[in-house]
Design a protein that fits this description.
Length: 324
Amino acid sequence: MKKILILHTGGTIAMSENESGTIIPGASNPLMAYNQLFAGQYDVSSEELFNLPSPHITPKEMLLLSQRINQAEQAGVDGVVVTHGTDTLEETAYFLDLTLPSTIPVVITGAMRSSNEIGSDGLYNLESAVKTAADDDARGKGVLVVMNDEVHTARFVTKTHTTNVATFRTPTFGPIGIMEKNGVKFFQELTEQQACPITHVIDHVYLLKAYAGMDDHLLTMLDLPSTNGLVIEATGAGNLPPQTLPALAKLIAHKIPIILVSRCFNGVAEPVYGYEGGGQQLQKMGVIFCQGLNGQKARIKLLVGLSAGKNGQQLATYMQDAIS
Ligand SMILES: NC(=O)C[C@H](N)C(=O)O
C-alpha cells in the first residue's frame, strides 16, 4: 500500500465560517480527522506543520516545508500532499518545485470554501490530491497543484478568481491532467528541471507592476545597498514607459538584477520593440527577460537563485530558462 504523508499548513481549507459569516482559522485543521477516509486504499498519515492563512506564509515557511518533504522522501514516503491557503499557494508550490530534488509526487491543494460552508471543496480536493500523489504517472513531473478536478504544474498555474472554485488556471499552456472518477489522467508532458536546493532564503527581493504613465518615483525609493533584486511586470511583450529608464540604469549600475516579465495574463515577455523603453533597449541595458512566468513566480525564482549564490551570467541563464 502506498505511503502518503499529508502536511497541513493552514488556509481556508483549514478554516470555518462563524455565525456572522466571517471565515476564521480554528485551533487546528478539521481535515486532520479524515485520514481514515483513505483506509484500505493508502497508508495515510498527516501532520499540521503550520496553521497559517497563506498571506502569512513567507519564504522561511516555504523552506521549512521543503526540508520536511525531503526528510519524508528519505524516510521512504511514496508521495506528499500539502494543504495550503490559495492566495499564495502558487508561490509555495513553485518554491518547492524549484528547490526539491524529489522524484516522488508532491501535490498541493487547498479550498475556496471553508470546512463548514455549503459546497465546501476542501475534502474533495484533498481526496483528489491524495489519489494523484499515489499515482505512478505523477512521478517526475515536478510539484503539482490539484484543485477542482484539474492537475496543473506549479511552474505555470495561477489563481485567477477571488472566490470561484475553478480559480486555478494555467494561462498559455493549460492543465496537464484531469481527475477522472477512478483517478488522475495526464495528457501533457513537461520538460524536466534541474533542482536548485538551498539552505537559507535571502530577503529584499521586490516586485513592481508597470502602468501607463509610470515614472521613476518608486524605483528611486529602493534602498540600493539592501536591495537584492527586482522583478518588474512590464507592459505587453516586455516594454516600460521611458520615464523609468534613468532609475533602472542606476539600479543596474549597482549590480541589482532586474528581471522582466509581462503583466499580460497569456504569452511570454520577449525583447521585440526598438522604441525608447522597448524590450530591445531594456535588454541592451542589462535587464533580464524571464519568459513564461508571472511576476510572483519570477520573484520566487529570483529569490531561490540568489539564495543559492547565483549571480552575473549564471543568474541570467537561470532566470531566462523558465520554459525549457
Ligand atoms: N481560499 C483560501 O485559502 C484563501 C485564504 N485567504 C488563504 O489563502 O489562506
